[in-house]
Amino acid sequence: MSEFKQLVFSGVQPTGNLHLGNYLGALQKFVALQDSYECIYCVVDMHSLTATLVHDDLMDQTRGIAAAYLASGLDPRKNIIFNQSRVPQHAELAWIFNCVARIGWMNRMTQFKDKAGKDRENASLGLLAYPSLMAADILLYRATHVPVGEDQKQHLELTRDIAQKFNNDFSERIAGLGYGVEMTVGEERVNGFFPLTEPLIEGPAPRVMSLRDGSKKMSKSDPSDLSRINLLDDADTIARKIKKAKTDPEPLPSDLEGLAARPEAENLVGIYAALAGVTREKVISEFGGRQFSDFKPALADLAVEKLAPISQKMKRIKADPGYIDGILREGGERASAKAEATMKQVHEIVGLLVN
Ligand code: AMP
Ligand code: TRP
What is the predicted pLDDT for the residue at 187? Predict the structure, then answer.
C-alpha cells in the first residue's frame, strides 16, 4: 500500500532577531532531522509582509535567517534551503487554500487574535490568511512532518483541516485522475492528494518562556531585551541575562513534579536539558536540591558553549551575501521543480485550464 514519502518541511520568518526559543523550538530540531529525512527549510519572507508591510531591510533579514540555518549546521547540499518568494507556487496554492478554508477557521487562530490586537478590522487581510499560506508552504511539497515550536500547533491543525477538506471536496477528481495516495488516519485507510501532516513538537523545551516572566513565551517582540537570549548575543550578555533571569527563592526540586507550580524554574531546567541534549529528569538528578546561584552559572556556561560558535559562524556567513544568495537561488531551483509538479496536478484536480 502506498503512503506519502516522508518529507520534512519547516520555515522561519525573517522578522527581528532570532532567539533561544527559535533555536531550541526550531533550528536545533531542523539540524537533528537532516540525517534521517529528506528536508526542505524555507525562509518565509512573504509571511513577513502580513503584520508589517514596509520593511527597511527585508532582504538582509532573509539572508540573516539563511545564515542562521547554515551556522546551526544545516547542510545546503543535503537539504533544500531557499526563500519562499522565489517559488511563486506558494502564493498560488495559498489562493486555492483561501477558497478551501473558512473565514471562521482563520478567526479562531490565537496568533491572529494576538497579532491583530483590539483593532481586528484594521489588520491586513494577509494576517488573517497567514495560515493558508503556511499550509501552502507545507502541502506544496506534500510534506509529512513539520518541526516547530509549540506555538505553531494550532496552525498545523489547520493545515490538516485544509488538506482534509481539499481531499474530500475533490475526492472524485483525485480518484479519477489517479492522483490519490493511500494513507492511514487513525485506524482508517483513506485516499487523498495531500497528506495529513504531523507536527514535530516534542523535546524538553517546546515552548521556551521569557526570562523575565515564566508565563509569557520568549519572543522577538518583547520590549525587554533581558527577556530573551538572542542568537547574536556575546558571551557576557548571555551570562548577564541568565544571572538576571527571574527565579523563586527555593532551591531546585529533587523531582520533576516539584517544578509544577514553578514556571521560571521549569523553564531554566528545560533550556538546560535542550541545550545539553538530555532529558529534564537528568538535569534534576544532577542539580536537584542546589541553589540557583549554582545552577545559573552552569547554565550560562552551557549556553555560551553551544551558542557562541553559532553566532560567530553566523557573522562570518552574513559577511558574504553573495554566498548566501547562491545557496538560496540553487535551493529555489530545486524547490521549484517539486512545486511545479504539484501545481500541475492541482490545476488538473481543480479544473483550471492551462493548455
Ligand atoms: P517565528 O519566529 O515566529 O518565525 O518562529 C520560528 C520558529 O521558532 C517556529 O517553529 C516557532 O514555533 C519557534 N518558536 C518561536 N518562539 C518560540 C519559543 N519561545 N519557544 C519555542 N519555540 C519557539
Ligand atoms: N508560522 C511560522 C512561525 O511563525 C512560520 C512558518 C510559515 C512555517 N510557514 C511555515 C513553519 C511552514 C513551518 C512550516 O513560526
Answer: 87
Q: Is 220 tagged catalytic? A: yes
Do 121 and 179 share a domain, yes or no? yes
Q: Collapsing DSSP states into helix, strand and coil, what is residue 159?
A: helix
Amino acid letter at 33?
Answer: L
What is residue 355's predicted lDDT score, i.e. its pLDDT? 75
* Global pTM value: 0.96
Q: Which residue segment(s) compose the domain that 274 sits in?
A: 225-317
Which H or E element spans position 130? helix 125-139
Residue 331 corresponds to which cell in the numbers above? 535551493
Say how far apart CA 264 and CA 253 lie, in whole Å: 13
- The residues lining ligand 2, judged by C-beta closer than 6 Å to any ligand atom, are 9-11, 13, 44, 47, 134, 137-138, 146, 148, 152, 155
In a domain, 213, yes or no: no
230 phi/psi in degrees, rounded to 5: -85, 150
146: part of which helix (H) or strand (E)?
A: strand 145-147
Residue 235's domain is classified under what CATH number? 1.10.240.10
CA dihedral for 15, 16, 17, 21, sign (positive or negative): negative
**Of 27, 61, 22, 60, whose CA–CA distance to 41 is shortest?**
27
Q: 96 with 197, same domain?
A: yes
Q: How far is CA 133 from CA 130, 141, 161, 345, 347, in A?
A: 5, 13, 14, 19, 17
Residue of 337, 350, 352, 355 lying closest to 89 (CA atoms): 337
Number of domains in the chain: 2
Please report the pLDDT score of residue 186 as a whole number: 82
DSSP code per residue over 280-334: HHHHHHHHTT--HHHHHHHHHHHHHHHHHHHHHHHHHHHT-HHHHHHHHHHHHHH
Is ligand 1 within 6 A of the CB of residue 271?
no
The reply to whether 296 belongs to the active site is: no
Considering the domain boundaries, does residue 210 fall inside one? no
Check residue 328 and give its pLDDT: 98
Residues 181 and 237 both lie in one domain: no
Whether 165 sits among the annotated catalytic residues: the reply is no
Low-confidence ranges of the chain (pLDDT < 70): 1-2
